Amino acid sequence: MAAMTPTVREAAPQPGAAPADPAPPAAPGRTRRRPRVWRGLVLGLGGAYFLTPLIASFVFTVHTPGQGVSFEAYTELLAADGFTESLLLSLGLAAATIALALLLAVPALVAVRLGAPRLRPVVEVVCMLPLVVPPIALVTGISTVLRWGPDHLSRTPLYQTFLAVQNESFPFVLVLAYTVMALPFVYRSLDAGLRAVDVPTLVEAARNCGAGWPYVMLRVVLPNLRSSLAGAAFLTLALVLGEFTIASLLGFRPFAVWIVSISGAHARMSVAVSLLSLVVTWLLLLLLSRAGTAPTGTSGAPGSARRSRTPRTSPKES
What we know:
15 helices
């Protein structure tokens, strides 16, 4: 068997033989270059795709044929009827929607993650249903339910509740509708964060140290989900500030509906308001993204300082 087994023997250099020539170096012109040109081209095309409409809209608002450049469309915004009220209403609805969506989704997903992992597909299907139902069908169902108040609940305490959720100063019914619409985005963001963190181990360690459930949620779980919470708030804010269908059909006037309502009589002002809303949305999203990142230099600094101050001892000294 040993004679039949082929063996590979390295050829030893014979005495007096010339050494083997080393491999020739690769030609400098054949080295593979990084695709910097293609990356720059793709980024340039993407930037032009997004910036060209914005620049054209800005030129439309400041340039009047035959009159030159004028910024009247922007100076008249603060004095426009309903501008401040609609903007504050949309920001208040966005804040309430973010709070309600996180208050519903975070405890539910953490409970499923800890106690009932088999229910995760059911929760996922329920949270993804708003993507299947169009907004026009959702607002039709909401308006049908709201009409039940005068017809069937006029002599019950729930009638006052139906009137309260439709208050024009702050329509809480829009918060409920926006929360349903934002559930898919909130679920995806939080689910990704929970998958990246070992939540059962963190909760078990905190509970073994004597921490209660409120302390575990506020001081252990939520800090580890900071980026996911910021992402969920990011998407919900963008959804609320740009939603038009539900608010318009229910008869309310947040910022998006106000922009459309003035577009017929003040075309330049409506475009200027749209650009201003984009700037405000970008600033708020930037603040949320900054809030989702932990400050650098704070975590781990005490430990590193202690380690740097600890003198090193040699094995002989120990």
